[in-house]
Q: What sequence folds into this?
C-alpha cells in the first residue's frame, strides 16, 4: 500500500501540479486579492466618489470631499494592486518552480559526476 | 453498489463504503500508508535541505555557479513539492457538501438505480466514520448477520454530543442496560456481517439531515439521532424512561443549536471586524449625531461587540419587516404581547445588519433605538418635541440610521405628529414595537397608522418556546453553576404556559428558569442539576396549587375525594359526587385549557350546605379555605363594579370563586359570565385580560327554593325536582344559555332531621377540639345534641341558625365556667340537658 501510494504520488506529480494543483492555487490566490479589496472597502469608496463626506453638502465640502475620496481610492487601489502583483509573482513562481528544479538538478548535478 | 440513494442538484448520493473486516483493515492501512508517505517526503526534504546548508553554505547566493549545494537545494525543493501535492491530494479526497438553496425541498431516499453514486462516506467526519466502524465491530463481536440501527445507536454513544444529550435526559444506564443487552442478544446470527438496509437508510438520512441543516460534514450525532428514529425498540425503551419522541427532537434541536451557535459565532466575529461600531459608516458619508446618541443606544454597535443573544426562529417576522422596509415609504411596527420577544427581533435584526445579511437599503447602516422615556423626561411637551425634531434631523442628515422605538405607545400625540412628518418625507425608516392594546390605542386610531405597517408577533408555540429557552439556558447555567435537564426546561414552558397567564412565553419561562436556577444553586450548591421536580416545587410556591403530576398517593386521595368532602359535608350526595368528579377531571388534566376548572350552579334553600361545600372544595383542591373568594352578587347592580371582581381574580388567579346570590346581579353582569364560562377570560376596563382558567366558579342561588322545599315535602325525587326547576321555575330568573353553560346545576335538598343531628354533632365536636388545646376534655349528652338540632333548625334558614345556637348555648356556658374557674386542665366538661357539669380530674 505504501509503495503504491508513493509511486502514484511521484509519477503523478507533473500531471497534478499543472492540472488540479494549478486550479486550486489559482483560486486561492484570487480569493486572497478579493478578500483584501473587500476588507479595505475599495468598492464603497469608488461608488461614493461624488458623495460629500460627513454630510457636508456645501461646494467647498464637496470639492474637498471629492479629492479626499479620490486620493483614498487611489491609495487603496495602489495597495490592492501591490498585493495583486505579489500574488501574480507567487503564481509565476508556482508555474516555473518544477522547470527550475529540473534544470537545477541537472545543472548542479553535473558537478557530482566524476 | 449502494442500495439506496438520494438526488441532490441532479447528482446521486449513496453510501459507497464497503463494510467488512477486510475493508476496514484496508482503510486503516491506507490511512497509515498515506501518513508514512507524507513523513517520507518531509524527511527527504529536511535531509536535502540540511545537506544544502552543511555542504554548500558559501555558495548559497551564487546559484549560477555549478555546485553540490545547488543540487541539494533543488532536491529539497522537489521533495517539498511532493509533500505539498501529497498533502493536498490526501485532503482533497473528501467531497464538498452541496450547498442547500433556500426553500429547496428535503430530498427523499429512493432505491438506487445507478451505480455511479457519489459516496457520502467522504462527507462523514472522522468520529462519524469511527461510529460506523465500531457498529460493525459490535455486530461482528456478537456474530450478527447484519449491522442494524441499534448497532449504530450503541456505537454512537461514545460521541461527546451524544453524551451531552443522554446526560440531560432522565435515562439511567442501569435501567436500559438489560433491555439493550436482550435486544442485542436476539439479533439474527450469521457467518458474515453486512450492512442492513435499514442501517444504510440511517446513514443516508443522517447525510440528508446534515445537508438540510446546512452543516459541512455529517457527524456522529446525526447518526445517533437517525438511528433512534429508525428503531422503534429504542423509541419504546426511551418512552418507558419518560422520553417521548417530541422531547427527543427538542433535545436534538438543542445540541444542533449549540453547534450552530459556535459556527455562527466564528462567522459573526469575522463580519463584526468589518462593521464600524462608531457613528461613522464605511462610506464616511454620515455625520456626528451627538443629540441622537444622547437619547438612544446603538444596537448594531452592541451586536458587533457580541452582546446580543441568538434570535431563535422568527424568520417569518424578520422577512415581513424587511419586505415592509424594502417596499419603501413604510415603516414597520411589531405588535405582540409583552414578553413574546419583540426586542429579541430588533436585536436579531441588528445582528443581521452586522453580517450584512439584509436588503440593500439596510446595508452599511446602523440600527439605533431611541428611548422615548429619555425624550420625555424632565421636559415640557414643547421641549420634548424640540428634542425629537433635533434627533430626527440628525438621523436624516447622517443618512445611515435606521430608527427603532420600543413601546411606541409611550409617544405623546405631539411627538407622534413630528415622527409621522419625518417618516412620511421618506428620510429614514423606523421599526417600532408595541402591545396589541398599545396598537389599538396609540397607532391604529392615530396618525402613526399612516406610516407604520403592522407586523404581528404572536406568542411562540410551546416547542418553539422550548428552543428559545434552550438558547438561553447556557447563559443561566453558567451564571448559577447548575445544569438544566431537558425535562426541567420542558416543565418550565409547559407549567408557565398553564399557570401563569399574566405574562407570555418565552419571557415568563426564561424568568422562571432564572428563579429556579437560583433556588437550586442555593439549596444544593454548585454543579447541581435542575430537575422537573424543582420546577414543580417553585411553581407550587408561586401559585399555591399543586403543580406536580398526579402521584400514586394522590391517586388514592382523588379516588376517594367524596369521602374527603364528607368529612365536613353532611348529606348532599349528588352535590358532593358532582364536585368530586369535576375536580378529578381537572387534576388529571382532562379539562379543557381554555375554560375554568369547573363551573357549578348550586340551587337550594338557605342553610343546606352550599357555602360549606364550596369551602370544603377550596380546601381540598387549593389546599386552604383561604383560596375561596366570596363575591356577593347582589352588590353588582351596575356594570361599574365589575372591576372589583376582575381585580379579585387577578390578585388570586388560583381560587374558588363563590358567586353568592347569583340571580341578584344585573342581567348585563350575568351576560359577562357567558364569556367567562366559555373562554375562561374577561377583559377589564383597562384592557387587561383576566384569566379564569385556574378558578373553580360556583354560583349559588336561592331562586326556586320554595318550590324545592314543597316538592321535597311532597316526596318528589331529586331528578324530577331538578328538571322542573330548570324547565319552569328558573325560566324567568336565568337565561337558558347561561344555565346550559354550567358544568353542573346541582340541587341541594332541605336537610333531614338525622342530617341536622349529624351537623350538630360535628359542631359540638368542633367545640371539643377547641377545648382540647386548653387541655380540657368535653363531651355532650346525646339528648342535648338532639334538642339542639331541633331547636337550631329553621324551615327558612336551614341549618344556618345552628352555629349561632351552639355558640349561644354551649360556648357561652363553657366560657362562664372557665371564667369562674370551675374547670381547669385535665377536667372534663359534660353538657347535659340540665346544663354544664364539670368532672374533676384526679389530682396528680
A:
Amino acid at each position: 500500500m505504501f509503495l503504491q501510494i508513493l509511486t502514484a504520488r511521484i509519477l503523478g506529480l507533473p500531471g497534478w501540479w499543472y492540472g488540479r494543483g494549478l486550479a486550486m492555487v489559482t483560486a486561492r490566490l484570487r480569493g486572497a486579492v478579493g478578500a483584501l479589496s473587500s476588507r479595505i472597502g475599495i468598492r464603497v469608496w469608488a461608488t461614493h466618489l461624488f458623495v460629500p463626506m460627513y454630510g457636508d453638502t456645501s461646494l467647498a465640502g464637496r470639492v474637498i470631499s471629492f479629492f479626499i475620496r479620490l486620493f483614498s481610492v487611489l491609495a487603496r487601489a495602489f495597495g490592492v494592486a501591490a498585493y495583486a502583483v505579489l500574488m501574480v509573482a507567487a503564481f509565476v513562481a508556482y508555474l516555473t518552480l518544477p522547470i527550475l528544479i529540473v534544470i537545477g538538478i541537472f545543472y548542479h548535478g553535473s558537478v557530482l559526476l566524476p | 453498489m449502494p442500495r439506496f440513494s438520494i438526488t441532490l442538484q441532479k447528482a446521486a448520493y449513496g453510501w459507497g463504503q464497503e463494510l467488512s473486516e477486510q475493508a476496514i483493515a484496508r482503510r486503516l492501512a491506507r490511512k497509515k500508508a498515506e501518513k508514512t508517505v507524507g513523513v517520507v517526503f518531509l524527511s527527504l526534504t529536511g535531509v536535502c535541505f540540511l545537506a544544502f546548508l552543511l555542504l554548500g553554505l558559501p555558495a548559497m547566493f551564487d546559484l549560477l555557479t555549478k555546485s553540490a549545494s545547488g543540487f541539494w537545494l533543488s532536491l529539497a525543493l522537489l521533495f517539498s513539492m511532493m509533500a505539498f501535492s501529497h498533502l493536498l491530494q490526501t485532503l482533497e479526497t473528501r467531497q464538498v457538501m452541496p450547498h442547500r438553496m433556500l426553500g429547496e425541498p428535503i430530498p427523499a431516499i429512493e432505491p438506487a438505480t445507478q451505480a455511479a453514486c457519489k459516496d457520502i462516506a467522504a462527507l462523514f467526519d472522522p468520529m462519524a466514520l469511527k461510529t460506523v466502524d465500531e457498529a460493525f465491530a459490535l455486530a461482528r463481536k456478537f456474530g450478527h448477520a447484519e449491522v442494524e440501527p441499534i448497532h449504530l445507536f450503541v456505537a454512537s454513544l461514545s460521541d461527546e454530543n451524544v453524551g451531552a444529550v443522554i446526560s440531560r435526559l432522565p435515562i439511567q444506564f442501569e435501567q436500559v442496560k438489560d433491555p439493550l443487552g436482550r435486544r442485542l442478544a436476539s439479533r439474527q446470527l450469521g457467518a458474515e456481517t453486512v450492512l442492513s438496509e435499514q442501517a444504510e437508510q440511517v446513514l443516508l438520512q443522517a447525510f440528508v439531515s446534515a445537508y438540510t441543516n446546512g452543516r459541512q460534514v455529517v457527524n456522529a450525532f446525526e447518526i445517533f439521532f437517525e438511528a433512534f428514529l429508525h428503531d422503534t425498540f429504542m423509541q419504546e425503551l426511551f418512552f418507558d424512561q419518560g422520553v417521548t419522541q417530541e422531547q427527543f427532537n427538542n433535545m436534538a434541536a438543542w445540541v444542533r443549536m449549540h453547534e450552530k451557535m459556535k459556527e455562527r459565532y466564528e462567522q459573526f466575529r469575522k463580519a463584526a471586524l468589518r462593521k464600524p461600531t462608531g457613528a461613522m459608516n464605511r462610506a464616511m458619508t454620515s455625520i456626528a449625531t451627538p443629540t441622537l446618541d444622547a437619547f438612544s443606544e446603538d444596537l448594531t454597535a452592541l451586536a458587533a461587540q457580541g452582546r446580543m443573544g441568538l434570535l431563535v426562529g422568527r424568520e417569518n417576522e424578520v422577512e415581513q419587516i424587511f419586505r415592509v422596509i424594502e417596499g419603501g415609504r413604510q415603516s414597520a411596527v411589531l405588535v405582540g404581547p409583552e414578553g413574546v420577544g419583540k426586542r429579541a427581533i430588533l436585536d436579531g435584526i441588528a445582528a443581521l445588519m452586522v453580517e450584512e445579511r439584509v436588503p440593500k437599503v439596510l446595508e452599511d447602516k446602523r440600527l439605533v433605538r431611541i428611548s422615548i422615556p429619555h425624550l420625555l423626561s424632565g421636559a415640557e411637551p414643547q421641549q420634548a418635541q424640540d428634542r425629537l425634531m433635533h434627533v430626527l434631523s440628525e438621523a436624516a442628515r447622517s443618512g445611515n440610521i435606521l430608527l427603532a422605538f420600543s413601546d411606541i405607545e409611550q409617544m405623546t400625540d405631539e411627538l407622534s405628529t413630528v415622527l409621522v412628518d419625518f417618516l412620511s418625507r421618506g428620510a429614514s425608516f423606523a421599526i417600532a414595537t408595541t402591545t396589541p392594546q398599545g396598537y389599538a390605542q396609540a397607532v391604529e386610531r392615530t396618525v402613526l397608522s399612516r406610516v407604520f405597517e403592522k407586523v404581528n408577533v404572536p406568542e411562540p408555540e410551546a416547542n418553539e418556546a422550548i428552543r428559545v429557552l434552550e438558547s438561553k439556558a447556557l447563559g443561566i447555567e453558567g451564571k448559577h453553576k447548575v445544569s438544566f435537564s431537558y425535562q426541567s426546561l420542558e416543565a418550565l414552558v409547559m407549567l408557565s404556559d398553564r399557570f401563569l397567564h399574566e405574562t407570555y412565553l418565552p419571557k415568563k419561562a426564561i424568568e422562571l428558569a432564572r428563579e429556579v436556577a437560583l433556588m437550586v444553586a442555593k439549596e444544593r450548591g454548585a454543579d447541581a442539576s435542575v430537575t422537573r421536580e424543582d420546577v414543580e416545587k417553585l411553581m407550587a410556591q408561586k401559585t399555591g396549587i399543586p403543580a406536580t403530576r398526579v402521584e400514586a398517593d394522590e391517586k388514592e386521595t382523588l379516588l376517594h375525594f367524596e369521602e374527603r368532602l364528607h368529612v365536613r359535608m353532611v348529606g348532599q350526595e349528588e352535590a358532593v359526587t358532582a364536585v368530586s368528579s369535576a375536580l378529578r377531571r381537572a387534576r388529571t388534566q382532562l379539562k379543557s385549557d381554555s375554560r375554568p376548572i369547573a363551573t357549578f350552579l348550586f340551587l337550594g334553600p338557605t342553610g343546606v350546605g352550599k357555602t360549606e361545600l364550596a369551602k370544603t372544595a377550596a380546601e381540598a383542591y387549593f389546599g386552604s379555605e383561604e383560596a375561596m373568594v366570596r363575591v356577593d352578587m347582589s352588590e353588582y347592580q351596575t356594570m361599574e363594579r365589575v372591576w372589583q371582581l376582575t381585580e379579585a381574580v387577578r390578585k388570586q388567579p388560583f381560587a374558588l370563586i363563590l358567586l353568592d346570590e347569583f340571580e341578584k346581579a344585573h342581567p348585563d353582569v350575568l351576560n359577562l359570565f357567558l364569556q367567562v364560562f366559555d373562554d375562561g377570560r374577561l377583559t377589564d376596563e383597562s384592557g387587561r385580560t383576566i384569566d379564569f382558567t385556574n378558578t373553580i366558579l360556583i354560583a349559588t342561588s336561592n331562586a326556586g327554593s320554595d318550590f324545592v322545599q314543597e316538592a321535597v315535602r311532597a316526596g318528589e325525587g331529586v331528578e324530577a325536582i331538578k328538571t322542573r326547576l330548570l324547565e319552569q321555575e328558573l325560566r324567568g330568573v336565568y337565561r337558558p344559555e347561561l344555565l346550559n353553560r354550567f358544568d353542573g346545576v346541582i340541587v341541594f335538598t332541605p336537610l333531614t332531621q338525622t342530617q341536622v343531628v349529624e351537623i350538630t354533632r360535628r359542631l359540638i365536636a368542633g367545640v371539643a377540639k377547641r377545648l382540647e388545646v386548653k387541655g380540657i376534655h368535653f363531651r355532650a349528652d346525646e339528648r342535648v345534641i338532639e334538642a339542639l338540632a331541633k331547636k337550631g333548625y329553621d324551615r327558612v334558614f336551614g341549618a344556618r341558625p345552628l352555629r349561632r345556637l351552639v355558640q349561644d348555648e354551649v360556648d357561652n356556658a363553657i366560657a362562664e365556667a372557665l371564667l369562674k374557674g370551675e374547670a381547669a386542665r385535665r377536667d372534663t366538661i359534660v353538657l347535659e340537658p340540665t346544663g354544664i357539669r364539670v368532672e374533676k380530674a384526679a389530682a396528680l
Notes: The helical segments of chain A are 2-18, 20-39, 42-47, 59-112. The longest helix of chain A spans residues 59-112. Residues 18-112 of chain A form one domain. The radius of gyration of chain A is 24 Å.
